[in-house]
Amino acid sequence: MTLHRWEVPARDLRIDLDPQRFPFATTDELADLDEIIGQARAVRAMDFGLQIQGQGYNLYVAGVPSTGRHSLVKAMIAQVAAHQPVPGDWCYVHNFHQPNNPRALRLPAGQGREFQRDMERLIAALKSDLVQVFRSQDYEQQRQALEEDLFKARDHLMKQLKQRAKDYGFQITSSRQGIFATLLFKGEPVKGVPFTAGHQPRSGKGAARQKALHEALHAFFQQVRSIQEQVNQRISELNHQVAVYATTPHFDRLREKYHECPPVLDYLQAVQQDIVEHLEDVLAEPEEVAELAGMESEPARRIMARYAVNVLVDHGQTHGAPLVEEANPTYANLVGRIARETSLGTLYTDFTLIRAGALLRANGGYLLVDVLDLLREPFAWEALKRCLKRQEVKIEDVAEFGGFIPPVGLIPEPIPLQVRVILVGTPALYPLLYAYDEDFRDLFKVKVDFDEQHRRTEDAPLHYGRFIARLCRAEGLRHFEREAVAAVLEQASRWVDHQQQLSLQFGDLADLIREASYWAGREGKPYVARQHVQTAVQQRTYHGNLVEERLRELIAEGTLMVDVAGAVVGQINGLSTYDIGDLTFGMPSRITARVFLGDAGILNIEREVELSEESHSKGVLILSGYLGGRYARDIPLSLSATLCFEQSYAEVEGDSASAAELVALLSALADMPIDQGLALTGSVNQHGELQAISGVNAKIEGFYAVCKTLGLTGQQGVIIPRRNLPHLVLAEEVVEAVESGSFHIYAVSTIDEAMEILMRCPAGALRADGTYPVGSINAAVQERLRYMHERFLTVETAKRQRRAGRSRRSPLL
């Protein structure tokens, strides 16, 4: 019988491109591409997500790698951010009321670093001026005057004390060891132990005078202490007045400069007050506050550090809103951290060691993060959500999360957060986060879908040519001839298995361009030609197809049993694809069917041994529905059959072999042989229609390679679903084999058409009386099923009769 009506002509096996119609001869004539090809949907979603205002409108960018996700996202953010205001700077300063809670100050962009320098200059100038003021002659005179008042009052009190002591019969003397009283006898001091203020009055004669002297000494010391306190108070007031007088001009200049920042004015007031109250610390020399050699400057630095300004975020050089891309989103890199230093063998920290994370650097702008990297880091995902929900960043010590107690418990003041977060991830991860994370849908309301392919248009050669031109100029590669550009477009269609679609995975395209330029360079050619692109594809395949070659060798030597000639009942060549990471290839698999009497139905051996994936098991179960609806309209199916992928020891996935399994089963029922020079791929539904499958090009090329290895006969070929015709983008060698008639490709719509090709016999159409034409495949199947049903009834009747006979002969109990 003729098969031409199902045969696919060679012209339909590849995309139709005429390089002569391209509007360029070589890519060096073209301008660089300044747009992203085929991502109109993503562009609109990105524009919406970046422009809309409101909480929770963060973005999830979904797409496979190498589709230009990062390039488009960064380009669009940069364009939008350039017209937005620059956010302010953020600083941490010492909190003089609560030292463990540093204060956060916001200043206009660029003024944070300037304020830091102003404070450094202020403290240096104040220290110098205060030292001069407190060493000045005027200050010394005022202080000496106060101290002279003390000395005069003390001398006056001492004279009074001596006179009263003399009246009591004692002589008062003073020295560095203290004040002493000596008993007088006839106006002369008596030798012996002097009387001091600490002695208790003695009893007996003179006790009253000694007691009176003791009370006079006690009153003297109280009066001296009171005068000393008054003088110290007056000196303190003098120091305060002098310090305020010396510091006010410096602070007034800063107050005038930062008068539009009330929090800064409050801070300056607190600094001035603290300096006045801690003059000793400010005026102290380093050697006066430390005694350990080699460590003189550390205590002084620690004391003066409370007047420093820690600039967390500096936007002095930023233009527009910031865009921060965090490549390593750990908790510390995302939120911030509190660093530590070593002093005298111990760890310490203060507000000057607080460091900002990506959220604060992007505050007022945009943060770009890879979601998979984020989810891998402990605490990072929850921290990001917490910051977005509360709209603030609270820098906490990560050691507390792990159960460790930090040396100093700093609790910095939270900083308000206004940021748009863009997560970049795979399409598969989005529904998982949406379904299982209750916060995700509220925080990331905008999904940006990046397509992997787009329909080929008349402008495609120009757009891809400009992409190639830009890459060649950027990396110093050889430019492409238009025939080479056509070869790149063909490969872009092969990657997506579609004649009218082109791949948008520009990372893979860029690699192909680089490798083709390399092979052109090896030949010393100034431009990349078509054969260089083909060489790049062939060499890439050769580098990774060791497993494929080993499998073909096993088939060639007979270890793996695959026939590509002859005819066998109940045996067919199915086609499978193998994915080994960077390479996907097709390979034939022998599928066999055995039929025998019984009512067990169709047994899937792969399923019984748990080597059948769900979709493959579904495909086998569909076969029962097809058989029942086609051949068991008036009688039940009395059938037992087994289906098996021979020499297959891995899990079978997908339902693309269901058509081949059905043909093998029908062949076994009709007892008609199947042409082993042909292979069949496609899934079948319960009505016997063939459905499109994936990987059609790899499957055809895989079977062609095996036939070529075992020897082409001119009768070999592959049967595919007609719905897969738009997906045919075959290798040039296979197309040439079809053109020469040494290999064939057939496209069918039903299982009947596939059977006619494989068994070289009419399938037969159902007639009005429910039968099929004599001599057809369907008639043979129907006759076999009727015979098996009758035999099954006969056997079952005999079994029942034997059981009944045994029951009559059994004695009654």
Topology (elements, then pairings):
Elements: H1 40-51, E1 59-62, H2 69-81, E2 89-93, E3 103-107, H3 111-134, H4 137-167, E4 170-175, E5 178-185, E6 188-189, E7 195-196, H5 207-257, H6 262-277, H7 279-283, H8 286-289, H9 297-304, E8 309-313, E9 323-326, H10 331-335, E10 336-338, E11 341-343, E12 346-348, E13 354-356, H11 358-361, E14 366-370, H12 371-376, H13 380-390, E15 392-393, E16 415-416, E17 420-425, H14 429-436, H15 440-443, E18 446-449, E19 453-455, H16 460-475, H17 482-496, E20 501-503, H18 506-522, H19 530-544, H20 546-556, E21 567-569, E22 571-579, E23 584-596, E24 601-604, H21 605-608, H22 614-631, E25 640-645, H23 658-670, E26 673-675, E27 678-680, E28 683-684, E29 690-691, H24 696-710, E30 717-721, H25 732-740, E31 744-748, H26 751-759, H27 777-809
Parallel strand pairs: 1-17, 1-18, 9-14, 14-17, 22-27, 24-25, 27-30, 30-31
Antiparallel strand pairs: 2-3, 2-8, 4-5, 5-6, 5-7, 10-13, 11-12, 15-16, 19-20, 21-26, 22-23, 23-25, 28-29
Helix pairs in contact: 1-2, 3-5, 4-5, 5-6, 16-17, 17-19, 18-19, 20-24, 23-26, 23-27
